[in-house]
Amino acid sequence: MPAALLAATARPRAVPARSPARAATVPRPPPAFASRRPEGGGRHPAAASASPPPRASRASAARASSSADDDAPPRPPTRVAVFVSGGGSNLRALHAAMLDGRVRAEVCCVVTNLPDCGGASWARDRLGVPVLTYPAKKSDPSSGLTAAELVRALEVEHAAKYVCLAGYLRLIPPELCRAFERKMLNIHPALLPAFGGKGMHGMNVHEAVVRSGARVSGPTVHFVNEKFDEGKILAQAVVRVDPGVDAAEDVAAKVLEKEHEIFADALGALVDGRVEFREEDGVPIVREGRG
Q: CB of 202 within 8 A of CB of 189?
């Protein structure tokens, strides 16, 4: 570098004010949104005129947004009707998941075909919720509800949004299937479509699994239609079956443990609005996260 130039760069000098045109070419942080640059390398006119809000303004806006969220009323729990015919272990597991926040819902009523079963008794004594009987005994029509009365009771009197069949051993009437289409779940103790259909419930399922020599089994959560165990599958879990080692009772215990997990997970996804249906065939798909 020539000596004259070195001396010029070493001496302090006043910096003249830049013209507006010159200032416009000074690099600035890019805007928060993507924008296409005009041809020729100039900046987008909107980006050139935009300036970030003062830090104090941003902080005030954040505080206002947080305050608005805090002031918003919490979402009331979704009301769910649960159907039982036996001891009600899945009813109790669902209720526990509601208490710990995994399922943002509450049991609004219980429906049973056996008013003295363990699940119905637990609902009356521990939950304090109404217990409805469906269907009525053939010998006593006044002992339970008709299908139309059941639908009205669930929709109007108890404002149920969803229905869970937690070990309910009777065929669901078509009126209820239509009223709660894509809103009614069943838990089945085998990997459907295997070991399903009429008569395949409880130990009948697990004995059939052991007899078949199947190496795996597990529960299925599916939507309910007018046929036994033929609704679209929402969730499944797999347990190992060891032929010659596992008896039907062993398989039943393994499967029941998984039932309590995936039934709550499936209901939680449905309540949160995270279940979508594939357009071409209606197969349900669960989105991750919470609604």
A: yes
Cα atoms in the Cβ-side hemisphere of radius 13 Å centred on 146: 3
Question: Rounded to a whole number, what is the largest CA-CA distance in the chain?
Answer: 117
Beta strands in 15-104 (DSSP E): 78-84
Tell me if 24 is assigned to some domain.
Answer: no
135 found inside a domain: yes
What pLDDT, in 10s, does the model give residues 122-171? Answer: 999 999 999 999 999 999 999 999 999 999 999 999 999 999 999 999 99
Question: Regarding beta strands 162-165 and 220-223, do their DSSP bridges make them parallel or antiparallel, or are they unpaired?
Answer: unpaired
CA distance 172 to 245: 36
Structural Rg of the chain based on CA atoms: 32
Each residue's pLDDT tens digit, 53-110: 555 454 455 455 444 445 657 779 999 999 999 999 999 999 999 999 999 999 999 9
Residue 147 covered by a domain: yes
Phi-psi bin for 72: left (phi > 0), alpha (psi -120 to 50), beta? beta
- Residue 249 sits in a domain whose CATH number is 3.40.50.170
Residue 95 a catalytic site member = no
Kindly state whether residue 170 falls inside one of the protein's structural domains: yes
Q: Which of 44, 95, 158, 188 is catalytic?
A: 188
Can you give the residue range of the structural domain that contains 257? 78-286
What is the total count of domains within the chain? 1
Report d(CA 266, CA 275) in Å as an integer.
9
Torsion sign over Cα 165, 167, 173, 174: positive
β-partners of residue 222 are: 186, 233
